[in-house]
Design brief:
Chain lengths: 238, 238
DNA sequence: CGTGCCAGGTGCCCT
DNA sequence: AGGGCACTTGGCACG
């Protein structure tokens, strides 16, 4: 009979390795708390000197190394990586290898404070609202938030230089390219819009308007918009 | 005397709350494994139905909720958030509040499989090489990787529309704007370069060259470069 | 697969 | 605090 939870304080290295191997084989989520060094080599390269960290190995092949601060793991490997755990000179070693691109994490634990193995049952997936797609939906449902007479035609319309959030026509029949941002727009938002407008202009001689839609816009982005005769439409959602 | 590690399997809700409160007060890192629902409200909004997850509360105020898959937490709050743990109708509740922007996480645990509290000592910070800054360093040290006669002058040079990675002059004394990417360059990389070149051109009548430096470049990015008479220089580092 | 792009992006640095 | 941007960005959707 397989227990759903295994949790052990200050295990011997041998016992820790045993638990972790079973955990990996059994598609369980493993948690290690201990003192370790971490080496990474792949797209970049890193070294992390000795300190206490939380290490999580997920059954999908993700590996996380967390320090006591920050939202981000200090080291990691994404889903699909292969984990190996073994003993070397009396120390627990956790290795993670990702292929394409090849990336390796090497963790050497000088001390293991805790090791746990958990069978996590989770069929639910998160429901999010307030995303950019929701804003686009609003505009398609109520085009007047852009301006009177605006007709949205396509969403995610592909051009030579990227995909247009919303393509439509205004009251006077002019082409309108809309780039939507769910947060404050910045220089790169304007660059995007500019790329799409340029792309559409390459394929027509008719006038093409470009409108950046966002709850706010940085000062320099506004300047950049103006210098290219692009427009900004403030749209507060939520 | 305060123990550095507290780990408890299947604690009663009362005991779990007690341990977690002490953990938060004592600037320790807390780990909860249990069955829960998660509600989030802030920049966006989300709901996550009942399932088994790993919850981490860090002493800097970060909160992470991890599912059994993916590198990313399904819900979180960044450093600086305030955590509260209490009992409600016999269930353990974990709440996290961030101000500016106001964001709240509400976790209701129907079952706690494990709770742990750890004093993590960690003075080390990660050393990373192979970053963009390293590539810029290489170019300053060996400007000939760009081309014979190139002279880099400034890095991170501010313009109206953003900061130029490297500004310099070529053999013939023409201004050169360089945008560096440590990985394959895409449309947005070209847009950036274009913005900077445009910005420099606004302040001079002399010719201004723009060079995108990267290990590779997407096909459409290449087209976009060409259409604006910008150049691509392949630079493999590492 | 590569390409493009959003993300509750996060984190860093500078003004 | 706001701006600009890199990140081992991650993750997804689409051709």
């Amino acid at each position: 009979m397989s227990r759903h939870t295994i949790a052990l304080e200050s295990p011997t290295p041998e016992r820790a390795v045993e638990i972790l191997r079973k955990s990996i084989l059994g598609s369980r989520t493993s948690i290690i708390v201990g003192r370790c060094i971490v080496k990474y080599r792949g797209r970049a390269e890193s070294f992390l000197g000795e300190g206490d960290r939380v290490i999580i190995l997920k059954p999908d092949g993700s590996l996380l190394v967390h320090k006591a601060s920050k939202r981000e793991p200090v080291n990691w490997n994404p889903p699909g990586s292969i984990h190996r755990v073994y003993l070397k000179e009396g120390k627990v070693i956790v290795e993670s290898i990702r292929r394409r691109p090849r990336e390796t994490i090497f963790i050497e634990l000088s001390e293991v404070y805790f090791v746990g193995s958990f069978k996590l049952i989770d069929e639910e997936c998160i429901m999010i609202t307030g995303t950019e797609k929701d804003v686009v939906d609003i505009i398609f449902r109520s085009p007047e938030v852009i301006e009177k007479g605006f007709k949205p035609l396509y969403r995610e319309m592909s051009t030579k230089y990227g995909k247009i959030d919303i393509f439509g026509v205004d009251e006077k029949g002019r082409a309108v390219v809309i780039e939507v941002k769910r947060r404050k727009a910045d220089l790169s938002s304007v660059s995007q819009l500019l790329r799409y407008v340029e792309s559409v202009r390459e394929s027509t001689n008719s006038p093409v308007r470009g409108i950046l839609v966002a709850p706010d816009c940085s000062a320099s982005a506004r300047l950049f918009l103006k210098s290219h005769n692009l427009e900004f439409r403030k749209v507060m959602f939520k």
